[in-house]
Amino acid sequence: MEDLISILVPVYNVRPWLPFCLESLAAQTYAPLEVILVDDGSSDGSGAVCDRFAGEDSRFRVIHQQNRGVSASRNRALSAAAGKYVLFVDADDRLHPKALEYLHAALVSGPFRMATGDYVRVTDHREWPRSGSEETLHYRTVRGEEGIKECVDRAGIEWLVVWNRLMDRSLAQEIGFDDIAQEDALFMFRLYLKLDRFVHVEFPSYAYLDRKDSLSSKPYYLSLQSDIVLNSRMIRYASGNRKYQSWLLRKSFRRYLTSRYHAEETGGKKEVNALFRSFFQEFRDMYDVSPEISWKEKLLFRFLYRCPWVVRIVMKLSKN
User: How confident is the model at residue 215 (pLDDT cuts 50, 70, 90)?
Assistant: First the structure.
């Protein structure tokens, strides 16, 4: 008997894109699946779309709740899941028809607890972009530490997002989602801490809809605030692993030096300094005694902290 897979979808005011997403889930070639939709108090008719799909397909289940945010929705879906494995999908995205089939085959090909796939970025859902051959799938084993480093560096979204990962339900339930702005990255960081390795399928199994969300239009200090909260949680969850904590401390302290320059350019200097003040109070001693951070770097930070004009000069020169 094949393993049951639970697809978990938080839904909130995505009426124009939701049918494309749900149709892609119903079209999966992997048969034993259930789809759990958590309507998080939508006001645009998304809940009715969920109910319609559930009425037409017994594999779909709908949970309606008052608006509590995406973390609460994902936790609610996790608690209702019955599958051996779970896969998160955002309600405005799509799965390739063979996504579950390929990810499941990769997962059971070895002693893995998670399988991931490639994704494509789209601006509409009219057709699935052509990319690669389905006949020549390649698996790649990835160390958990690689995922941790990507979470620390945050150079791109590939290893930070929770969607397009087929994972043990028990493992996902053990971790759960914190109610913070960057809940995906924190969840994945905690997941990587528990994985020696996982398998990646080099095939675009997921279409991510780029809606040009308004995050980039927020004041600089607000995005910095969510970053500080994320780093603080990561440092605490990495308790006992000095190397990972040092990676995060180094990244945070370096970012502060550049953030003051950006605050001069974009506004919010006072807010930026206030945000970091509490972070320093909590973690400065840990930074100072970390054997993973050289004394030269610690001295350099103190110098640049006291002489922000040097940072401004360097940043201006680097832009020319």
Answer: very low
SS3 content of the chain, % helix, strand, coil (to 5): 50, 20, 30
What phi-psi label fits residue 240: left (phi over 0), alpha (psi between -120 and 50 degrees) or beta? left
Look at strands 114-122 and 94-95 and give their pairing: unpaired
| Res 271 pLDDT > 80 | no
Rounded CA-CA distance 181/186 in Å is: 10
Whether residue 242 contacts residue 283, with contact meaning beta carbons closer than 8 Å, is answered with: no
Residues contacting 65, CB < 8 A, separation 6+: 38, 39, 40, 41, 72, 73, 76
Q: Which residues contact 102 (CB under 8 A, 6 or more apart)?
A: 96, 117, 137, 201, 203, 205
Give the Cα separation of 112 and 68 in Å (integer). 33
What values do phi and psi take at 103, rounded to 5? Answer: -65, -40
| Mean pLDDT of all residues in 118-129 | 78
The confidence score (pLDDT) of residue 264 equals 67
The mean pLDDT of the chain is 88
pLDDT at 98: 94
Domain definitions of the chain by residue range: 5-209, 215-319
**Res 273 pLDDT > 70:** yes
**Residue indicated by tokens 């992997």:** 30
Of 246 and 123, which is predicted with more confidence? 246
C-alpha distances in Å from residue 27, one per residue of 20, 137, 210: 11, 20, 22
Architecture, CATH, for domain 5-209: Alpha-Beta Complex (3.90)
- The answer for residues whose C-beta is within 8 angstroms of residue 110's C-beta and 6 or more apart is 141, 199
Q: Residue 205 pLDDT more than 80?
A: yes
Long-range contacts of 250-259 (CB under 8 A, 24+ apart): 250/293, 250/297, 251/152, 251/153, 252/228, 252/279, 252/283, 253/287, 253/301, 254/301, 255/224, 255/227, 256/305, 257/301, 257/304, 257/305, 257/308, 257/311, 258/311, 258/315, 259/220, 259/224
